[in-house]
Structure formats: C-alpha cells, structure tokens
Amino acid sequence: MPLIVFYEVTSLTRQHDRVIAFDLLRRFFELFGHAGMWAPGLGVIVILLATHMASGEKWSIRWGRVGLMYLEAAGLAAPLLALNWTISLSTAGLVAPPLLDKIALGIGAGIYEELVFRLLLISFVMMIGVDLLRLGRTSVTVAAILLSSAAFAAHHHYPVGTEPFMLLPFVFRTIAGVYLATIFWYRGYGPAAGCHAAYNVALTCLGNVTY
Length: 211
Description:
Layout: H1 2-10, H2 20-30, H3 39-55, H4 63-86, H5 99-132, H6 137-154, H7 167-187, H8 189-205
C-alpha cells in the first residue's frame, strides 16, 4: 500500500511520464468503461484482495513479517544490481527526469510490471496449460516463466515501449525477468514487486536511469 499510494500521488504531476505497464492496465480498464488514472492502482488492490480471499488464509496482519519483507526485497535486489554492473547498459541520449520522478517511476515499475508480467501472465499461462489443457505442471511452469520474461523484456521496445530494439538490453531484461519470476513463484507477488522496486530505486540513487 505505501508503494502504491506513493506512485499514484506523484503521478498527479506526471501526466505524460508513466510506467508502460500502468498505461496498459489503464487502457484495459477503459475497455470496460472504467477510465481514470486511479483505475490501475485500485485494480492492484482488488486483484490482491481477491487472491487472498481465494487462498482461504486468515485476514490478520503480522507486522513483523511485513517489515521483514521489505528487508527481503532489498536483499533480493543485490543480484540484479550485480548483473547490471556486469552487463553495462548505455544511458547515452536519455533525458533524466527529476529525482523524485525517477524514484516514483522505479517503484511504479516494480508494482505494475510484476502485476502484469508475473502475477497475471504467469497465472494465466498456468491456468491454460495445467487446468485447461492438463499438461505437466513443471513444463508449463518453465514455459510460463520464459514467456513472461521475454514479454517483460519486449514491452520496453517499440511498438509497445519507447525504446528501439537493442539485443543487449533485451537479453539483460529477459534474464532479470527470469530472476523476478522465480522470486514470484517461490515467494509471491510482494517480494517480487519489492525486489523490482528496490533495484530500480538503487539504480536511481546511483545515477543510472536505465532499468
């Protein structure tokens, strides 16, 4: 909730500078007549509440675990940062927005890209492959992780994203997508989104605007 609120509030001053996955969700809700900048954020909350209801778990909050999850997310971002330093990505020619906007965009990417490409896409592939087609769970899981990772990398480039296609960033983001999908599979949406957001914020603080 703190991350969602922070991104949504700072979006009030960034009408034309948003996370691509956020705009994809907004366009999806517009198909059903639910327009407006708040729809994606509310969509995240509704989806997570519905997922929790379906799980049958208790509604009590263990605040200690919530705090530890923030620390876990920060720790899980370390391998991504190491990968980023290993595979040097050029930021030449990019116009960097103000620091607060960069932090907000990085957090928003963690929230909405993990929702679209991990929670929704992986769940959809598993539903089709395992529940509908009755295929092997292991093979479908591997396929879902690879497909979601490639889609995550591709959406940064034309025609969906704003970057021309370049092989190195695509490969880097695909590898990062596999890592984030693995976190999602074993630890859930929260740690995956938190790891993604922590990685982006760390890059921002280090002066790198490409993530």
